[in-house]
Predict the 3D structure of the following.
Amino acid sequence: MCASSCFETHRSALRLWEQLHSHSAAMLLSMRTRGEAPTCGCGKRSPAPFACFRIVIYNGWRNSNVSSGRLCSAAHRWAVSNGARIEGMAGGTRGGRGPRSLSSVNLTMARLSRRSDNARPARSSTPRGHDQGRTMGIGRSRVIGACLAASAAMLALPAATGTASAQNWPTRPLTLVVPFAAGGPSDVAGRILAQGLSDVLGQQVVVENPSGAGGTVGSLRVAKAPPDGYQFVLGNSGTHAWSQTLYKKPPYDTIADFTALGLVVESPRVLIAPTTLPANSLPEFIAYVKANQATVKFGSAGAGSASHVSCILLNAALGVDVTHIPYRGLGPAMQDLMAGRIDYVCDSVSTSLPQIESNSIKAIASTGSRRPAVLPNVATAREQGLDFEVGTWQGLFLPKGTPEPIVRRLNAAVGEALDTPSVRERFETLGEEVAPPERRSPDYFAKFVAAEIARWSGPIKASGVSAD
């Protein structure tokens, strides 16, 4: 008798709906999760959980007393104007007021229901395979009112239990997904953070490395995970900002499919090369690459990764077209770089520092705004005459729909872990800059990521690079 399309936990919602209506197929649920916001049965975007209600045929009976088109349009207009209130009532990022606001939902939806009574009735039709002329004579307001009340009840359920469950959370080990192979900068940062979180939360935090496609494989896994806080991903500039432009159809929408948890670290990139490369400064490197661009190769952690896009932007600044060799992480790329099978990598300081200090590779230039504290002798690109700067960041993301109390609990634990002297020292030793407290909040990080997506969209499009 009605349809709703934006409940994250649609299976449990369907069971509740069945109980409230005492039959087995009263609600239609349609979800679109690959790179787009959920849309409802009528094809419109759903800005709030009450966005679309449509006629449903049940056991041969058709409710012909509701104009589905008009009601759907009215519901969409209401949802657009009240989306912020809906999020707050659901325990989302806008206050988490919980079920005390449920009465206002029922009141508003009742008004919407009465308004729809004036809509012109839809033409009656009988489904194939059923007797002609049998029409369910149910009052419009009663039908719609029951549907809306059930929707409001389902929306309020998580808020009613969220605070209580968060007090005891976590009750079992957590999984931190690092979407790159072991040994790379994300893996190093993830394992440092996992240990710190384990100490703070009193539960083991297990690091898993489902790598591939520039980190989007592991990130997509978390986007589809249950929103209970037990699985989260350490994303970076490549996985959650640049990927939105690099792919014609990104495997996920960073804004729509994730809950931003907090910024962890920032770091400049460093241009590294094998010791056999006949260039020791950036001007010498530029001259060599331009003279040999048909045979020169650069490596990265995969198409769309931070190391890939950093080098693509560098190549664009140099005006060269160089062959790209993607790996399943920077660990394997580093092995081939030291062996001379590739010519350069735009790496993070954290993973290249040991090899630089042991003279296994050489650093040509830093791409940050200043020299890395742990590599004071490596001049920036600007210092060497090239107007170029690119840096990367790493931060944590949860599945969309994670209850706000759990988001706050985990964010506080991350902050406590980052403020632990041993954790901070390990990051700083690797050349990573730990995000200050004022830049760690979920709200700040959500705005920061949105700005990063917009900031790099133009340069990436101008470079012509694609991860498809």
In short: The radius of gyration is 27 Å. The chain has a mean pLDDT of 75. The CA atoms of residues 260 and 397 lie 5 Å apart.
